[in-house]
Amino acid sequence: MPHVKLERRGTTAVISVDNPPVNALSHAVREGLMRAADEAEEDRSVQALVLICSGRTFIAGADIREFDQPPKKPYLPDVVARLEACSKPILAAIHGTALGGGLEVAMGCHYRLALESAKLGLPEVKLGLLPGATGTQRLPRLVGAERALEMMLSGEAIDAQAALDAGLVDRVTGSADLLAAALGYAQELSEIRRVRDLPVPPAEPEIFERARRKIAASARGLLSPEKIVQAVELAAEVGFDEGVAAEREFFAECKDSPQSSGLRHAFFAEREAAKVPGVGKETPVREIQRVAVLGAGTMGSGIAYACLGTGCRVHLLDSDADGLARGEATIRKLFEGGVARGKLTEHEAADGIQRLRTTRDYADLADADLVVEAVFENMAVKKEVFGKLDTVCKSGAILATNTSTLDVDAIAEATGRPQDVVGLHFFSPAHVMRLLEIVRGRQTADDVIATALSLAKRLRKVGVVVGNCFGFVGNRMLYSYGRENQLLLLEGAAPECIDRVLTNWGMAMGPNAVGDLAGLDVGYKIRQERADRPDDPRFYRVADRLAELGRFGQKTGAGMYRYEPGSRTPVPDPEVRQLIRDEAEHLGVEQRDIGETEIIERCIYALVTEGARILEDGIAARSSDIDVIWINGYGFPRYRGGPMHFADTVGADTVYNKVCEFRARFGDRYWRPPALLERLARTGGRFGDL
Ligand code: 3HC
Ligand code: NAI
Questions:
Q1: Does the predicted TM-score (pTM) go above 0.85?
Q2: Angle of helix 76-84 relative to helix 27-42, nearest 10 degrees?
Q3: Ligand number, closest to the Cα atom of 478
Q4: What percentage of the chain reaches a pLDDT higher than 90?
Q5: How far apart are CA 564 and CA 567, in angstroms?
Q6: How many CB atoms lie within 10 A of CB 117?
Q7: Which residue, 261, 493, 536, 558, is most buried by CB atoms nearer than 10 A?
Q8: Does 346 participate in catalysis according to the annotation?
């Protein structure tokens, strides 16, 4: 089937694009558009053209999969130019989303008609790119430089009405038949209007300075936002063709950058994560309308709030009356905060709150479709809770645990229905963090996994299915990363130095600030319970000593750092430096100056080696799943594509050689290279190709 068809409707030629699922501008579509424009132009009886798309959306962009291949003619800017050059009026009829190259094609048309429900945007920045098919020069001509910058730097789409108000579209229709509306509109058109011929409305020079300041604060070190600002500046200063030539250069530079490669990898990795062996379209999904959340603490209240956001009824249970009241108050505050920030209407908040019930009685959970347990991290408590759930919950209810480290199979054994038990590992704050680790137990049923994945979508989270082991994927790797941080402290790197180096490298927070935020007591308790703790007195020594001193982090005003009352800003603490020096001396660890490169390599390669072991053990199905987990749950820089993609970027041989060097320097205990890493290094392989 051709991806682009040309039909005659009276005196109008209709060019329709049909390239499911999102009508991406593949090579075949670009060729088809060129041909269709030529044919319609040659046909003397044609007076106007309509460009429309089949399926769920207008063109959603260039075909991102083609970016890793050599470019093939016709190039997209030439296609856009061809449409614009038409000697007869050409109208884009937009439904769904007109994104990236799709919106650029629409801006190449002389007129734009959008359905009320349509969205339009240039999201290239999210892929480390800038619009590369003349969009940076067209959008400012239509909506002004300031609005264009706002749209391109945020990458967020705007709705049809906003697009009409801004001048990006010419008409909005509520018609159920977009083609009919477009054909009617086309009859009215006689004039050719080319965006390239419009002047860029005058703009205050400060808007560029403001944009740069914003980038410096929120997109530090990223290439494409800076290039977007430069391109829009040029649009205001030079002619269209000169601006387009510069845009092409900028686009090539961005496309070939490791940042864009990392961001494109993350885009596909998140979509890949939804494809799970044994779970397909045919796998049934259990209905989830009534949710019960056990434990009204930090996690339980956030999970309950997130579930209320999906329209479910939620029963919140806690054994402690005060804890329950605190949890309910937290949830109310979250709703109020949502209203204050304009994220929710008063009505939505009231509706959410009235769907919440609190209880201390397990009998109230009898009709729950899904139970999420978030009580204390203790196996005996979890088993007792699951035993009770087994007696009260209806048959077919999904019984989920939010444990961060405990054995999901052991918890499942406390019930007579292990097939219904699954790990749903939310991240703190549960209503904010995008990651949901879905832990498949030995006996978890496929439809439970399918339901968990669909729940993740409803929660607007990325669900990643992982196997059952200590810490699953994310926390198991965190354990290795944290271990190196802790050893580096003993060896002489200050907490604030490690945090600065790793945040400069791109991590959202440094490991020491994270420890203080999460609470040093939490990790301490988990380590105390572990039977397989390495026989190494240096292992998490500093964190353990601080926890034993009651320095739990932000909640006690002191941890790895100290905190002024009411402040969350970490302040380096000479007492901690002294404690570390004393511990190092006591253990006979010689302190030295440690360079930035070593800090980065030891922490990040510790992640990569543990990730490789996780793949060897089959705990993650794909290395890209590990990347999704670290990007969305642990603040790993998205533009580096996740730890495994990063390893592929530097090369498995480079990582392997460094790991061998660390083994020679620091011994076998932590730096024995995994067989998988060694194999990839020897064969020139990549984690991404496994
Ligand atoms: N190229 C190739 N494949 C694409 C694609 C694209 N631009 N956009 C989506 N897909 C694929 C997805 O990978 C997925 O494939 P799969 O089913 O095999 O996993 C499938 O289309 C459906 O995508 P989603 O699961 O994301 O579907 P949704 O309905 O949830 O969302 C969407 C649809 C809003 C269009 C979303 O897919 C999206 O945001 N796509 C990316 C849009 C984009 O970034 N466009 C700009 C591209 S860069 C560009 O145009 C450069 C130009 O300036 C030169
Ligand atoms: P928390 O201490 O804030 O809350 C636990 C709540 O459970 C308390 O309100 C307590 O009264 C209640 N509770 C204890 N035993 C109970 C029982 N038998 N029946 C009913 N309620 C009971 O704990 P938090 O931090 O919310 O952690 C809960 C779970 O979530 C743990 O398994 C933890 O490992 C996990 N988790 C925690 C994360 C975090 O950052 N805090 C992140 C991800 C998972």
A1: yes
A2: 20
A3: 2
A4: 97
A5: 5
A6: 12
A7: 493
A8: no
